[in-house]
Amino acid sequence: MNIEEITGKKNNIGIVEQKIFSFEGITLDSGIFFGPIDVAYETYGKLNEDHSNAILVCHALTGDEHLAGYHKEDLDAIIAEQDPIQKKRLVRKLAGWWDDMIGPGKPFDTDKYFVIGSNVLTGCHGTTGPSSIDPKTGKPYGLRFPIVTMCDMVKVQKKLCEHLGIEKLFCVVGGSYGGMHVLDWTVHYPDCVELAIIIASTAQVSPQAMAFDEISRRAIMNDPYFNHGDYYGQDKQPNYGTQTARMIGHMQYLSPEAMQLKWGRKLQDKDKPDYSWDCVEYEVESYLNYQGKIFTERKFDANSYLYITKAMDYFDAKHDFSSLAKAFKATKAKFLCISFSTDWLFPTPEVKSFVKALRRAGKDVAYTEIETDKGHDAFLLEFDTLSKLVKNYIEKNGDI
Amino acid sequence: MNIEEITGKKNNIGIVEQKIFSFEGITLDSGIFFGPIDVAYETYGKLNEDHSNAILVCHALTGDEHLAGYHKEDLDAIIAEQDPIQKKRLVRKLAGWWDDMIGPGKPFDTDKYFVIGSNVLTGCHGTTGPSSIDPKTGKPYGLRFPIVTMCDMVKVQKKLCEHLGIEKLFCVVGGSYGGMHVLDWTVHYPDCVELAIIIASTAQVSPQAMAFDEISRRAIMNDPYFNHGDYYGQDKQPNYGTQTARMIGHMQYLSPEAMQLKWGRKLQDKDKPDYSWDCVEYEVESYLNYQGKIFTERKFDANSYLYITKAMDYFDAKHDFSSLAKAFKATKAKFLCISFSTDWLFPTPEVKSFVKALRRAGKDVAYTEIETDKGHDAFLLEFDTLSKLVKNYIEKNGDI
Prior knowledge:
The first copy, chain A, contains 14 helices and 14 strands. By secondary structure, chain A is α/β, with parallel strands linked by helices. The radius of gyration of chain A is 21 Å and the shape is globular.
């Protein structure tokens, strides 16, 4: 198939497929041994002879392992679509979430590097999570799934790398939630990372972010159809509560400035309010409702959202050490850290704080703040600036 | 009764009582005539002969008309309480919410002024609201209560003032939600206000605040016991959802700085996490849970919360005018406006923006920003600074 002809996209990686790596399990931070574990992953490009060109991309909160290119069945759906507007929408929607960054000649150049994406433990995109079948009961785990930490998730990524024959990653990169994974890699596997790229992320979330996570979880757990997490196979799903949780998330991704610019106080397709409970009054409400709806339409599992946010709250890069600088002491990685000026979920001062700790630990750190009004969302929106930064950094530091 | 002996409080106004003013109704902003309306109110001090010493205090989102002093039955409860810690708690809890500001010799000096507090339309503290009985059906209104605006609420306050024989208020004062009422008074009753004191409030809320309001309402409406607003008399009430909504509110009252200082990432009475769904892990979660619980314990009506936040979203002081400066053009009031440096619900730049409009309209405006790490909550916490500012302003401008 000619991908460019079908999608209009140049230098696309083309058809990719999900793979599964299964292994016996790991001992979790909580002390429990948990397994078996399936890991859903994708790879792009070729691993070189000495296995030194691997880049691991860690996805954000609700992201997944499908980083770039198209799955065969998705391309078929795009080909079958006759409406040009719908076709364009599918081309955008069905590509991997970092398609612009990964491919031949792109910042993560698949002509040179072997790029890996893997879905986190507790996810709902193929890796074992609360929606998976518990082999002991033959039923989905639900809330009987053990609570896991970021370190547990990274431990699973490490197992996958070993399975692929990779002892040392040329680069580990991630934004937001994924950036925390990158930090954990450098702390717990100090000899295994050459370059660490951390975008819009911090060494721990603030109490404000923890509190919003807790409120989001309440919105899900109080949904009339949540049924203590055992909603699988039910006629009705806890969608409305899950949408509310997602809306709370989106609030943190948007800067107040961006909200003002984008919607302000504009009414939704009308000149004056309806003063009614049966309608959406403002554009900003409509946007958030839409974000909530597409989240449940793509069937993101409500329980996964609970586990994933919980892991974020627990994460503290200095957890096993007396200071952040000590946590970073052993790593041999070089760091590129990027923050966004209007990000209030992972604000610049908090990014600077772990950058300082890295410098105290004597590490090679490049740090930059990107000026933007787009808030935390800039991680997926400020493509031009981000791709230039990353491309330059990799070219400068890549000796392969 | 000797109030000082019972409560340990000096210059307390003493025993006060709720009064009810009933009238036929008003035409709402939505065009509907709504009535009859009961208004719950309290007064402190004496109205002077020419009725020129009245101060109207407009309460915040979930506040009420009980501004100062004690109700007789509450004092009896304090007297009956034997445990000194519990007694102290009751003394604090049962006093009016602005007890420190209103009384003999206090900033709002009841030896000189006649102070009025009234519960807003749609409230749940005596004024007609969704929990009131609809005389047409003999049942509580629930969501059949019409949606009302801030202007409607102020129209009801105006009716109350007329009933009390007051044509012109010496002062209208309010913080947060109440500050919006003050602004509306100056816009819609330009000849009726001498001094307008607006604390931590703006001429309209931001799209960010509107969005959080919408999310809060979703949390209530999706509660399994909400029953489309007809939960009155049910065994179970939509408490959990209402608590979640309140938690979202509190998040906006707290500055990230205050959250960091107060709780940081401290675990709740333990050295390491339990990694369990059955417990509270962090202090910040515990605080918010507590705030949610006391909100439903004081039986704040879930439907009232929906209507009150909706009115906040609709409020725009310039609504009937082409600009904010034009909205303020006609008023004869002098203004004192106060903002708090770490308030992100009603941030200083937004306060400054209506202060600028007031100046463009040629008004006499004093503005000050109070430096604090307490966020929006400072409105009830920065008592010393606030009371001095208000006292000085009233003394300087009060010619009675």
